[in-house]
Structure formats: C-alpha cells, structure tokens
Design goal:
mainly alpha, 16 helices, about 0% strand
Amino acid sequence: MSFQFSEPFPRAQMKSDAREALRGHWLAAICIMLLYSVFSYLGTYAMMKMMLPGVSLTDFMFGSGKLMQQAMEQGPALASNPQTLAFLGLVGLIVGILLSGIFQMALVMWASAIAERRSDETTLGAFFGFFSYGLTGALMFIWMNLWLLVWTLPFTLAMGVIGFLAGGNDTITTVAMVVIMVAMMVVIIWKSIQYSMAFYALAQDPDIGVRRALRLSIERTTGHIRDLFVMYLSFIGWLILTSLLPPVQLYVMPYMTVSFVNAWRFLRPGGIDAGRTGLSVAPEDASDQRASAPDMPEAAPLGLPSEPAPQDTQEDTQEENK
C-alpha cells in the first residue's frame, strides 16, 4: 500500500491510519491481548505459588483472606532465607524477559503486517507463527534494558558517593539527591525513546540482529525525540483509563503498537526492505533512503562505552582503510 505522509511528523495521521488499518482485525487483536493477559497472570501466579505453596488459583484471583494469611505466616521464613529469595527473583526475571521479549516481538511483527496491509500475515494464526522469532525478541529485550541499566550507573554511583560522604540528611544532600534523580529520569526517558524503535526495526527484518536494530533506532530517532515524546503523551489519557479499567488495554495496546509502526515507517522511509513496506519514497530520499551516513557509535557520558556499532559498519570501515 502506498502511504504518503502529509506533515514533518504527522502524529494524527499515523494514529488515524492505525485505527483504519485495524478495522476488520479487532477480533484477532483482542484475542492476542487476552492471550498475553492470561499468560502474564499465570506467570505471576506461578511465582506466587513457588513462594506460597498453599495458595490456590482462586485465592490468587479473588484475593481471599487465605492469601494474606499465607503471606503473613511464610513471609518471615522467606525473609530469613536470602538464597531462596535470590533464586525466586532470578526465575521471575528470566520468565519476565522471555514473556516480554517473545510477545513484544510477535505483537510488533503482527502490527507491522496490519499497518502495511499484508492480509496474509494479519490472522491470529500468523501471530502464533511470529513466535518463531521469540528468541530474537528476548535478546532484543535484554540488549535494550542492559543499555538502559548502563546509563543509570553513573547516577546510582553519584548518589551512593554523596550519601557516603554526607553521612547525614542535611538539606544540601537532599537537594543533590533530588537533582541527580531528576537528571537520571530525564536521561532514561531520552534513551528509552531512542531505543523505542528497535523492535520495529527488527520486525522489518529479523536477520539484521539486535545490535544493528538498536543502532538503527538511535540513528532514526535523532531529531525526533520530542515528536515521539509528544506522541507517547498523546496516549496518556488512554493509559490512565487502562489503569482504572484494565479491559481497555484490549483496545489501547494494538492501537498504540500499530500507530508506532507508522512512526517507524516515517522515520525509516522505504523501510529496511522497501518491497515489503510498500511506502512511497520521495524523490529526494530515493537516492540514499536516509542511510547515506554510516552508523557511528554514540558518544557516552562520563567515560561510559558507547553502544556497539554493527558488524557490517566495522567491516566497511576496514575496507575503506585498505
């Protein structure tokens, strides 16, 4: 399908096209979100069952007094056994990574098919087929969050040093801590937006690998951080409503995902494979596909290493040096 953008960053058009693209596919979208909700719920219950063996699914679902009683009885025993807590935390982390990465990858690939009107890949069966890329999705999830963790380290160390040297709770120390925390939040939001298109790049072509996908996301979001931030804010009302009425998530998540697929299609004219996206590339973009500049590692603050450059870029540089 030919999809022409009418503005520098047509947020409203991206969202309206997402709603239009989802027409006729809402049953599959709702089933997908229900499936994710069930798996998430059962995963949480499994973790609870490991900590509190006597808790039934009914107790967990309806929050009966038995659940609270079990927690009060076995809580002190768990607290006195750090090895068990560490093991349960590790298991929960692994399950969370696998579930989040696998589902996110499948959902974005399915949403890409919806946005690009590839009707043969928009069915519920096609969504299940995308689970074959689950390992790639899990690796992408790990790689993104690993770099977000790296960016928090300077601020965490700074707060630790200030807390150690100050020793007290004086006003200057408190103000310094607040300033550092605010700065950390700004950086995390900034980097999260920079990394936000990585899954969408990977969905276009899973063979590029997670490192290349992250570099593409950083490159293509440069100059559009504010646009994407405002686009996320445009969904804030829906997200608040979802927190009050969880079933609303069945509508909001597919709508948001397809909208951001359109954002990626705008940021990456022609996509990684122009034949798949079907986008109409403007003449001035056709010559370079917005990829004329080589991918260079991003400078990191405070001596931190930059996100690794993709292997193909390094090989190209070696050939040029020869």
